């Protein structure tokens, strides 16, 4: 890395004042693109951490496997989109925007599954209460406890869906709106500056 930075610094030092001014202006124009790349890095690593944390639940559970694998794939795609964004790829904002909508679909699908299981599935909680007199004495019959618990579960997962629509919707809109900034950067920045930043690894 030090060698690469040293090699990149040599041609920069030999630039004329006008060329240095072009580099400074390019850096100013790239601020909104760099900011989006920072957001993508945060989102990508957050999803990667969640994928690792959910991995233990993937063993013996098809739903858990889908969630862990889905989060892992979305994290990889988010970080890939970040890299393309830093190379001023005009298609990168759309990639990141659709990735957020993919995350919304994954979260919403999981929540809907949990709601349907709560409403129509066989209850392990009720069976456990019926099998244990101590729990039955404390909580009442399994049916009574489930009648109390069911609306709370539905409300909880409904709230998660609503929050995800808001969060991922805003993120997706933000990413999609960055395309005009990438295109403006490519349109207004001399090609030699764009290539220099790409080769030097600058963002």
Produce the secondary structure layout.
Blueprint: H1 2-13, H2 17-29, H3 31-54, H4 62-86, H5 92-120, H6 124-131, H7 133-139, H8 142-177, H9 179-188, H10 191-200
Helix pairs in contact: 3-4, 4-5, 5-8, 6-7, 6-8
Give the percentage of residues in beta strands. under 5%
Q: State Rg.
A: 25 Å
Unreliable residue stretches? 1-10
Name the helicity range. over 70%
The helix/strand series, from N terminus to C terminus, equals HHHHHHHHHH
Number of helices: 10
Large-scale geometry = elongated
Q: CA-to-CA gap between the ends? A: 15 Å
Based on secondary structure, the structural category is mainly alpha
Largest sheet: none
Average pLDDT score: 82
Q: What is the count of β-strands?
A: 0
Index terms:
mainly alpha; 203 residues; disordered N terminus
Describe this structure in words.
The protein is built from 10 helices and no strands. It has helices at 2-13, 17-29, 31-54, 62-86, 92-120, 124-131, 133-139, 142-177, 179-188, 191-200. With 203 residues, the protein is an all-alpha fold.
